Amino acid sequence: MRSPQLLRAFLLLLAATPILGVAPGQAAERYSPQQLRADIDALQAGIAATHPHPSHSVDPAQLQLAIDALRQRASTGLDRDAAWRDFSTLNPLLADGHFFVGYADWRAETEQHLREGGALFPFEITVDAQARVRILSELGGAATALSGRSVETINGVPAGDVARALLAHVHGDSARFRADLLSRRWWFFYWKVYGAPASFELTLAGPAQARLRRPASRAHPSILVGEDDFDRQFAFELRPGAAAVMTIRTFSWPEQAAFEEFTRRAFQQMQASGTRTLIIDVRQNGGGNDAMWLQGLLPYIADRPYRWASRYTKKVLRDDPAKHERQGQVLSGTVDTWSAPRTDDPLYFGGKVYVLIGRGTYSSAVLFADTMQDFGFGTLLGEGASVRSTQTGGVQKIALPQTGLVLWAPRLLLVRPSDAATPLWLTPDIGIDDDPLHPDAMVDAALAIAAAKR
């Protein structure tokens, strides 16, 4: 449980966050305290109408304190970004990657900013839960000789202070998850919290401390590059030693048939080559459609009947007379639909399966990992203590009518197939540290573990 003292310190930190600029070309509509309070009322009503059990991730008393503080702080002259900076102080408190105050479409927001002449922080950054900041690459992913260098100051502000100021607005289950999400979207949170300066002065740590001045970048960030490119999201490679690596960066793809054809070809190649070890990498997989892995992966792997969850709790959002459901009800039940294995399929894979998980594994990817672990279909390798094994779902987009900001809130709770209460967090069977500067190192470590167990 979070203490009132921690909450007050958290709110004071956010109140002191500096703002250095606004996006070019955007009309900064200002809102009255009455308008802001109306949105706060809409936010609280949205939570009450949508979430089956907010206490799954947040202490209700602490949440009420935070919402009351928002109402008290509502002041004249805030534009939409300033309102977000205030409202989003709830996000770490809500402590769920599906439960936060954000923008209606952060991707479109970024595209518009760049289209109108705006620019962003010039590097891709990696941040850890201790708020240590390192350079990963140029913005957009191009290699840089500065990769791995620790950043000490940004525009005169200690980089750790900047990271903590940004983390105070980031959503997610845990500090580790939030640091990983910030790493992927550093440029976005920096822009929305500190503004969009034309240039950046950085001090880099090292034997010879370096001072660097860089113009802001108009490149498209890595996370936005190739989101629609199938070959960037899904990859398969045969490896020496009768091994193969399948990388699945999302379970959200508009054409499920394309994914199913990808997996069919992969298992066909494994059969033809005599593959006995399969590594499935979902470290960067933020989820999507459960049907993709239920229909595109498990039929080749499962050797016993399985289900994708054991119990559910849901909030009824609208009356459904056919089901005798009334709006506002909170209903719970068991998942009684089991799928039969297809071990007689010519492409059934009878070898060893290892699933790589990490700080960015989320949502449907967690349900996939739970299922693989609970039924013994594969061994989980990687990092844990980032996301809960019980996941929320059925995320609703609730518009706040005055500012146009959005409350994202889940209507479902899904308990892992085994119905086990522990571990609370998604936990690997074998732990391997992941280095964002050397992502292939975990794959190599997994292959070495697999080889040693053959």
Q: From the alpha-carbon coordinates, what is the Rg to the nearest angstrom?
A: 23 Å
* Discrete helix count: 14
The CATH class assignment of the largest domain is: Alpha Beta
Content of β-strand = 15-25%
CATH topology of the largest domain: 2-enoyl-CoA Hydratase, Chain A, domain 1
Examine the secondary-structure arrangement and name the CATH architecture of the largest domain: Alpha-Beta Complex
Unreliable stretches (pLDDT < 50, length at least 5) are 1-26
The computed structural class is alpha+beta
What percentage of residues falls in helices of 4 or more residues?
Answer: 25-40%
Give the CATH H-level superfamily of the largest domain. 2-enoyl-CoA Hydratase, Chain A, domain 1
- Distance between the first and last residues' Cα: 45 Å
In what order do the strands lie side by side in the largest sheet?
8-9-10-13-14-19
Give the domain tally: 3
